[in-house]
From TrEMBL:
<dbReference type="InterPro" id="IPR000924">
    <property type="entry name" value="Glu/Gln-tRNA-synth"/>
</dbReference>
<dbReference type="InterPro" id="IPR001412">
    <property type="entry name" value="aa-tRNA-synth_I_CS"/>
</dbReference>
<dbReference type="GO" id="GO:0006424">
    <property type="term" value="P:glutamyl-tRNA aminoacylation"/>
</dbReference>
<dbReference type="Pfam" id="PF19269">
    <property type="entry name" value="Anticodon_2"/>
</dbReference>
<dbReference type="GO" id="GO:0008270">
    <property type="term" value="F:zinc ion binding"/>
</dbReference>
<dbReference type="InterPro" id="IPR049940">
    <property type="entry name" value="GluQ/Sye"/>
</dbReference>
<keyword id="KW-0963">Cytoplasm</keyword>
<keyword id="KW-0648">Protein biosynthesis</keyword>
<dbReference type="InterPro" id="IPR020751">
    <property type="entry name" value="aa-tRNA-synth_I_codon-bd_sub2"/>
</dbReference>
<dbReference type="InterPro" id="IPR014729">
    <property type="entry name" value="Rossmann-like_a/b/a_fold"/>
</dbReference>
<dbReference type="GO" id="GO:0005524">
    <property type="term" value="F:ATP binding"/>
</dbReference>
<feature type="short sequence motif" description="'KMSKS' region">
    <location>
        <begin position="238"/>
        <end position="242"/>
    </location>
</feature>
<feature type="domain" description="Glutamyl/glutaminyl-tRNA synthetase class Ib catalytic">
    <location>
        <begin position="3"/>
        <end position="305"/>
    </location>
</feature>
<feature type="binding site">
    <location>
        <position position="241"/>
    </location>
    <ligand>
        <name>ATP</name>
    </ligand>
</feature>
<dbReference type="Pfam" id="PF00749">
    <property type="entry name" value="tRNA-synt_1c"/>
</dbReference>
<comment type="similarity">
    <text>Belongs to the class-I aminoacyl-tRNA synthetase family. Glutamate--tRNA ligase type 1 subfamily.</text>
</comment>
<protein>
    <recommendedName>
        <fullName>Glutamate--tRNA ligase</fullName>
        <ecNumber>6.1.1.17</ecNumber>
    </recommendedName>
</protein>
Amino acid sequence: MTVVTRFAPSPTGFLHIGGARTALFNWLYARRNGGTYLLRIEDTDRQRSTDAAVDAILDGLSWLGLDWDGDAVSQFARKDRHAEVAQQMLAAGRAYYCYASPEELEEMRAAQKAAGQPVRYDGRWRDRDPSEAPAGVKPVIRLKAPQEGETVLKDRVQGEVTVQNAQLDDLILLRADGTPTYLLAVVVDDHDMGVTHVIRGDDHLTNTFRQIQIYNAMGWDLPEFGHIPLIHGPDGAKLSKRHGALGVDAYRDMGYLPEAIRNYLLRLGWGHGDDEIISTEQAVEWFNLEGIGRSPSRFDFAKLENLNAHYMRQADDARLVGLATPRLEAELGRALTESERDLLTRAMNGLKQRARTVVDLAQSARFYLAARPLAMDEKAAALLDEKGRGILTDLAARFEAEADFTAAALEGLVRAFAEERGEKLGKIAQPLRAALTGSTVSPPIFEVAEILGRAETLARMKDAATAARG
């Protein structure tokens, strides 16, 4: 059997982080088993579905690297096929016309509530002849569901789950206007697309029992189901925007890398021993449904940031320059020159060691591109007292005379300079750091000086030494 999975989002908003995890698990299971991963846009809710949301979903999946096989399928475009299946069940006696009016159904529900009974359709048209139909009422088509016995689901994540059929009513397959319901459309699409494994959130578990009845009514083979626990916030409550239930695009805007998001979402509910850092290649090799836990996972921004910092350090320098450049250009209000991009590429190895996100990276790189005289933060300015200015003046003369303007040579020069003055290295390096970066925190300062070059380094040192006097 060739494994076929699918991700089936509704285009009523962004691709949220929970949906991204569902897509990831389906993608991994298909890739792990040499199968097919399909994308279906469940756009039957025409009032809420938008082209912008479809574009956002496709963009989010592409950014995450979750490439799907073949073209994305529109569920709405298949509405005639869904209706055809409903008619087949009707002809086979597995479904029936229901002529109950909306007012009649509301009275039924009110009576059930008043009697303390579960609210469900009571089957009043289940065995009646359509000749009794009232004039002017367009019927819906309902499934003639089994009323006795039980429906058993052998779920790959939740284990065996059983529901008494008496708890399930005769669901609507086709509305009075001829449009299919979600439950029917999903089953028909999964069957026609050859889906072998339905991996989705456990909020769909109740739907699954109803969908199984549709499969049985049509005599179709059931796919295997795996219902994933939902993601909760750090406080254990249902994930909300304040916890991180944002669109994937928001995480990109916050400066996270797609490989870090993939790794984090993988570990959010699935495990492989004590491994925390799991590459995409390892994930494809190791992923299975048995590793998914049954309890909700808790979203933790601190863990995500730590993971992202790891992937930042591993990322290609040129790639990071490409990610940071638009943010820097927006702040500067101009395009970067080729020489500036080259400088950032040379500086990137030092910059990325401390950055947790691309946003951090861009902020920490600003001093390389800043116009002179450099703005100083409060701590940096405090270092440029009379002693600090004197150090810079004397040190600038030695830098100017140094033939080998490399980080190693400059470090040796400064160490010798510090020994001559009977100072610790930090007492010399910190005023230098303030002069070159405007801050007390930066990549290794001798590396910074080499990357800035002799002329810019000396100009910044002299600016700091003279401006402080004024």
